[in-house]
Amino acid sequence: QKEVEQDPGPLSVPEGAIVSLNCTYSNSAFQYFMWYRQYSRKGPELLMYTYSSGNKEDGRFTAQVDKSSKYISLFIRDSQPSDSATYLCAMSQAGNQGGKLIFGQGTELSVKP
Amino acid sequence: DAGVIQSPRHEVTEMGQEVTLRCKPISGHNSLFWYRQTMMRGLELLIYFNNNVPIDDSGMPEDRFSAKMPNASFSTLKIQPSEPRDSAVYFCASSLQSSTGELFFGEGSRLTVL
Fold it and tell me: pLDDT at residue B73 above 80?
């Protein structure tokens, strides 16, 4: 079993829809939770960052972490065609493992005009 | 800032040949990571360095793979001999060691082994 599980999709939604992306994980030592966005033929770039449990909002994006359930989510409101990309969840431990990110497989999202 | 620079961007080679991928991290970053991305397995960590020292190479698939970081501004990932199953996009990323997850990725090196 992989440490981080993510449905690869693809996911196709109409413009303006609310998008929900999710990951589950098995390692209870993970403390830092991130979402990266990757456009086609580009490297991933950090989108959202959350420490431990709770919610974080940035514009149209909301990240949620539920450590008790080992489950994280990314919500995109009022989705736009420019949001079409692959979204990867990533996690890391604290301490001397800090910075070593374990990624989910990525969910390919397509927002249709 | 130029960001993380990788070369070559594309490489096509024949099975059995040696492949060397290169990476220049962001100046001032002291952690460097090599990842491999495929459709089947996603983004996998191969090896990472802190202050030019390899910390964890447990993701290196086998002895055909080796990585070096001779100084703070340069790293190589070498595959010798290459095999068709090594075909993938190889990403280099860098970060501040004190940070907790913000990796800055290069644009990747797309390797095809025939």
Answer: yes
